[in-house]
Amino acid sequence: MRQPLVMGNWKLNGTKASVEALVKALVEPAAKAEGVEVAVCPPVIFLGLVEKLTEGTRIQYGAQNADVHTAGAFTGENSPVMLKEFGCKYALVGHSERRTLHAETDAVVAAKYEAIQQNGLVPVLCIGETLAQFEANETKAVVETQLKAVIDHSGIDSFANAVIAYEPVWAIGTGKTATPEIAQSVHAHIRAYLAGFSADVAAKVQILYGGSVTGATAAELFGQADIDGGLVGGASLKPEDFAQIIAGAKQ
Ligand code: PGA
Question: Which of 5, 59, 177, 211 has the highest local Cβ count within 10 Å?
Answer without folding.
Answer: 211
